[in-house]
Amino acid sequence: MPFPWKIVHLNLQKSLTALKVPENSAGLHVIWWFGDTPLGARYVGREELPLTPGRIKNMAVKAIAPSITKRLKDQTMEGLGVHSPWFMNDTPFCVLDHGPKPLNASQVSVVVCTRNRPHDLRTCLISLKKLSPPPLEIVVVDNAPASHETRQIVSCFKDIGYVHEPRPGLSIARNCGIKNVSGDIVAFTDDDVQVHPRWAARIQQAFHDPDIMAVTGLVIPLCLETEAQVIFEREMNGLGRGFVPRTFNRAFFLSKKKYGFWVWEIGAGANMAFRRKVFHRIGTFDTRLGAGAAGCSEDTELWYRLLSSGATCQYEPGAVVFHRHRAGMVELKQQIKAYLKGHAAALLIQFETHRDWGNLRRLFFQLPRYYTGLLCHACIFGFKGRYRLLFPEVTGFLSGIWFYINQRKEGD
Amino acid sequence: MTTPCISAPWAIFDVDIAHDIHSIETGQNQKGMGLLIRYKDKPVAFAMIPLAPGTILHPKDILKIAGKKAGNIMCERHISEELKVPVPHGLPSLTVAICTHNRSKRLARCLNSLTRIHRPRGFNISDLEILVVDNAPPDRATFQVAADYQGRLPNLRYMAEHHPGLDFARNRAIQEASGTFLAYLDDDVTVDSHWLEGLMEAWQENPDATAFTGAVLPYALDTKAQIFFEMRGGFQRGFEKIRYGQKLPGNPLYPCGSGIFGAGCNMAFKTDLLKTLGGFDEALDRGAPLPGGGDLDIFYRVIRSGQTLVYEPGFMVFHEHRKKIQELKHQYFTWGLGFMAFVWKSWKHDKKMKQKLVRLVDWWFKDQFKRIGYSLFKPGPLPLSFILAEIWGGIVGLAGTYPRSQKQIRQWQTRRDNTRI
Predict the structure, then answer these.
(1) How far, in Å, are A101, A143, A367 from residue A147 at the CA level?
(2) What ipTM was predicted for this assembly?
(3) What is the least distance, in Å, from the CA of A58 to any CA of chain B?
(4) Residue A255, SS3 per DSSP
(5) What predicted TM-score, i.e. pTM, was given to this entire model?
(6) What DSSP element (H or E) covers B268?
(7) What's the CA gap between A306 and A169, in Å, rounded?
(8) Which residues of A65-84 are buried (b: 16+ CB within 10 A; e: fewer)?
(9) Do A54 and B204 make contact, defined as CB atoms within 8 angstroms?
(10) Are residues A86 and A76 in contact, defined by beta-carbon separation less than 8 angstroms?
């Protein structure tokens, strides 16, 4: 896979201008926005450039149509004074209006968990300070810090809370954050992201329905400069979940449960929010999972518990954060290994608590079959691109099972 | 061999759902309808619906069909209308070439439809030239029709091309054309009244494209053969705009393929491009022994020369399909033959694509055999004899029809040159 790719944000409210061939890059990753709502994206290879405004328009229409179509259909179903069929609406962008009420984020508490990444944290906090409208509060949880640097950085910012959590582990840090905030909605983000100014407001807006207990949002790569970043975003599907809003409810969960529900389709831990009462009802993040323990999947496990309890999760692409993917191949391999380790452990934990056989089916049937297929492909066509990550994936998978067995032994 | 239970005739309706929709009703002897749905003049869907005679479709039924078949496309159109981009100034001039052979009634119908087209804003009537190329005329009937329409179509010219063969006529048009673009129509089509607007819109959106193809819908659904052909997909390529460049995601054999670009009865090219490419291949499209493949060949050469081809649904014509089952069966044979002749020719001349073309032939035969399987186990879609006719055409095409045809043409040319001396 060629790299680097240049990311271009185009606002469709402004008139489109021609796109030129970028220097020193494989092409453009064009993301179309309408005001502050992202609607679609497309990779435009070098060979397709330069593009005339007319062609950009046609590409934009194709890319954003699914997102607009879904919103139009939802609006018609909710019957917000719309009488004609959804496809007859000839001012489709009106569907993005959020009504006469001004946006606000007064119920949102933002929790940022960090561990020894003061530099990244600073840019993250700068972006959080630019949130408009501002959230109720922002709290940084400093997880098992090696120095005072994080505390010093946080003290440079006005009105940002600081909590010290000596026990290492992302789940522990997030649980600590939950205890220390007061908003009705708790939004989590990571220290390696930058948030969009409307992020908090869009999250609060997405909770419009009282049945919605969790909201996730879109994660856009901050840059696609190294091979590792491009492989992660394009071949491993990255952290983004597309531009179409989705609702995951109990009916959806039940229909998929048998086959091992693909919980990670809901979103990513770098951009998620919950109603605070959820934590009283079904508990907090499982401390066996997450970075510093099994590796990850503390977020997906909580969604699984939520859906299983009958609640609804909403994916709202309007809530945007920008994530800096791992730049080096070594770091990416570590990350992927942690993902699979966490995933395997989470499947076993979910089975333990819910007795849904789909989890085991996924663990012992789907995943081995999937990786055998990939391995065969790699043996024939070579270990290139995404296939370079196969080894860390498989070892991560096995160590996840091993991790779970050890945990149980310690528990006994 | 019988065709599946289709009873003729069917009605064709043309409904614009942007305006007040009226109920439509099939006549007392009509067994179904082809429903063309437009939105603000632009076609968005064509539905083939078998119905009992005298069935009424109410506006809400029509909207339901429209939503199901064209909801997404209409939504895309709306979005497209909201996004404003600067359009290139001025429109190119156009020559329309109608190549005809001994079918003066159909030609008159085609010319008549051309008198009714809407002109896009900024397009002068003097920029439209019409050439009637009379191929190997046996009598003066075609000339007479052209003369009749000279008054109504200001820039109409008649010329006779005595060399029999569609591509001789098409190449004659290249020499005679004065427009920047050259559009070809077969004599068995009629153009939609928004045909010219569709072409110009496609050009404005893709000023760099040098070839255009458009939608081809049925002119009539009067006989079983016509209905049957249209139900099998006919010449339809859908109602989404498609831009064919040098790559097509998801199609590993691209640009080699059988008829993905459009149909030869409705196509337009930049005149200069045709001149640089050396025109159409005269060994193809000749009637017996090699009656097809010329359009496949020209589209392929356009793409291979690095140019872009655009499919525009608004650039729409109505084609009169073959009326008799026997003729339709022969047409299937023709398609197989023309396709393989094209593959043979490209394989000889285009070294870079040899592998892909071999894989294409492989895919084609496998696909045909799959269809044989279907027709045996699930009677309905396509009678076996049609598939066999197409396969037989393919085999004949691979068995050296193209070089034979080439040789014949060369002989004719030497003979003609000798007589001239």
Answers:
(1) 45, 11, 40
(2) 0.81
(3) 7
(4) helix
(5) 0.82
(6) strand B266-270
(7) 22
(8) bbbbbbbbbebbeeeeebee
(9) yes
(10) yes
